[in-house]
Amino acid sequence: MIYIVLVVVGLVMGSFVNALIWRIHEQESSAKKRKDSKLSVTKGRSMCPNCKHELTTKDLVPVISWLSLRGKCRYCKKPISAQYPLVEMATATLFVHSYYSNQQFFDAPNYPDELFIIWLAILVGLTALFIYDLRWMFLPDRIVFPLTGLASVPVVYEFLFYGLEFEVILSAALGVLVVAGLFYGLFYFSKGRWIGGGDVKFGIVMGLLLGPLLGYLALMIASILGSVLILSLMALRIVDRKQLIPFGPFLIIGTYIAVLCGQAMIDWYSDKFLAGLL
Known about the structure:
Layout: H1 2-28, H2 31-34, H3 64-68, H4 83-100, H5 104-107, H6 113-136, H7 141-161, H8 165-190, H9 197-235, H10 248-273
Helix pairs in contact: 1-4, 1-6, 4-6, 6-7, 6-10, 7-8, 7-9, 8-9, 9-10
């Protein structure tokens, strides 16, 4: 039953992600649009991104509505991007995979359901950032800042209820120093050419979630994935050396892998090559 609930909630939250990133981008693109109440994230009604016709309930059923309309708006008949059902299904998949994961992050003794719900909310934010950066090469503060607050919740909870005050604060501080500090150094010395300010801010989220060791692992994963993909695209002549590629999606993938599998990866590496030192 829990898997069915997670799929349904994941589909709904995926639909929310699509609406969220579109509204934020529309608002950021024009000062006039920022004042348009119809584009409000909290108050606006769902609408077609092409004709702006207000959508009804039958138009908003995740995946099913898009399939039944064959990927077109019911009113203007213009195509609706396949991004919408894909993001909805991806979010549901991430929800289910997070619950299925048997890593210590979720299986620790007395791990409260509230923190798992916080993790699902973090996943929604990560998914929104992934799509936003992929499409517009920007990590907006309006998503990053709430994510920072959500990432702080597990730290505060462990500080208050687990009796690990020093360890928790030290881990979070070192995590932010390792990740955000590295990003800030790259940003400062390159004057924003190598890495963007949004990546520096997102580094705070990574540091709070992961701590120093898992944070470093997430950076390695992101760097390896980014290098492999970019070199492959260059070899296929899909992109050239001068083309800008957003790094945020790779950081988000690295963060997700590090949260769910990072400790197991570190334990394996330690036992295999370092005689259990880590």
